[in-house]
Amino acid sequence: MSDTEYAIESADAGASATIPMEAGQIKKGGFIMIKGKPCKVLSISVSKTGKHGHAKCNFTATDIFTGKKLEDMVPSSHGTTVPIVNRTEWDIMDIGEDGEVTLMDESGNEKTDINLPSYPETMAQEIRDAWDGGENQVSVTVQSAVGIEQIVAFKKG
């Protein structure tokens, strides 16, 4: 066997979209993965230790992209996963007919692979109205987690 048969074409740094964390370490306002969805924790109730010896954390959270309410119960000493959530500011350069948005950051980098948000329902129209209304500058906040990017907020001017 020659060395070329095992040549590595490319390598992945192994960066993950989530990190492991003990359930008891997650705080209200933090993030947690529930049923494969990145969620923001609304409330946590902790039950007493039972006959099996573990206190249980009952998480109530909302999906950060759809707003859907989800719940999960995890023993406090057991591991769960937390999504890595990033928020970046972008200026709108153009809005296409079908809702595709062209964005630019303060470094001059362009982003063209994002559409107007579907949640909350009124935000897409509000952004379009502000843009069509001739506002000098409409900027948006793009939130990204687990390979999903979505506009989550905007401001005029």
Structure description:
With 157 residues, this protein is mainly beta. The protein folds into two domains: 18-83, SH3 type barrels (Roll); 86-156, OB fold (Dihydrolipoamide Acetyltransferase, E2P). It is 6% helix and 49% strand. It has one helix and eleven strands, in the order βββββββββαββ. The strands form three sheets. Strands 9-8-7-10-11 form a five-stranded antiparallel beta sheet, with helices on one face. A hairpin with a 4-residue loop joins strand 7 and strand 8 (100-104). The longest helix is centred in the last third of the chain and has 10 residues, at 123-132. It starts with 17 loop residues before the first strand and ends with a strand.
Notable traits:
mainly beta; elongated; SH3 type barrels; 2 domains; 157 residues; five-stranded antiparallel β-sheet
CATH class of the largest domain: Mainly Beta
> What is the CATH topology assignment of the largest domain?
OB fold (Dihydrolipoamide Acetyltransferase, E2P)
Mean pLDDT level? 88
Largest sheet: 5 strands, antiparallel
Which overall shape is indicated by the principal axes computed on the Cα atoms? Answer: elongated
* Derived structural class: mainly beta
Question: How many domains, in number, for the residues?
Answer: 2
Distance between the termini: 64 Å
Helix content estimate: under 10%
